[in-house]
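Hey,

Quick one before I head out. I ran the complex with pantoate overnight. Inputs first:
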Amino acid sequence: MTEVIRSAAALRDRVATWKRSGMLVGVVPTMGALHDGHLSLARAARAQSDRVIVTIFVNPMQFNNPEDLTKYPRTEALDLALLEAERVDVLFAPGPEEVYPPGFATRVSVAGISEPMEGTFRPGHFDGVATVVTKLFEMTQAGRAFFGEKDWQQLQVVRHLVRDLNMPIRVIGCPTIREPDGLAMSSRNVRLTARERAVAPALHGAMQAATAAIRAGTAPAAALAEARGAVLAAGFADVEYFDLRGAEDLAPLATLDRPARLLAATVLGEVRLIDNIAV
Ligand code: PAF
């Protein structure tokens, strides 16, 4: 039975009881509309912690586009049923006033790594993420936190945050879960029309082709230009970025001289799709 908790005070009491018994608490922060990607994180948390908290909070502070916030799918009853099946102990689903009470004035900002890519196209986004993640870590008092590699830049921002602020929590990155045709699972995928859904896997296809070309010795700039062209030719409306970067510091790479990641953000119809793969 998954217990639903909405207040930070009640959550703190529940966690304090667990911790008195020496239990290790794992947290999976989410914004709900759960899919197999989230459930894989819950399973990893279940395997690596004594007690599992999944949080669902559609965080207004990380949305730079008000329409995106309004349209973000909210499916709590369905989400709860899925979490029950994964034997999650607590669903922490606070309301906006619980997280941001009147007079809330703090902003957590991770300089540098937050600035390129998502930071450029979604100004303020990572301040919202870093602020809410800091609050969720404080509220849950978890010892382990599970994040998907799908949001690779977010994962690096959170790792940086935890290191910089000496937070007593271990951040565990879990592999991206994909549909059989390669599309990375995302809560936004339900907003694709049938035609767009058929086009969407072209993004992963272009990333795989670029990766193969770079590994085979093609200059990254040429491989990235080819990939951008392939995505636009498939029917995407825009490619915001398609970059080769150092896997951890996210510095742009002109040559493949260290562990790297290909990262892209695109627009298909009205939906923004991001993805990344190791090179
Ligand atoms: O990845 C997400 O769903 C969100 O950015 C997170 C980490 C739950 C913070 O709101």
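The first strand starts at residue 3 and ends at 5.

Talk tomorrow,
K.
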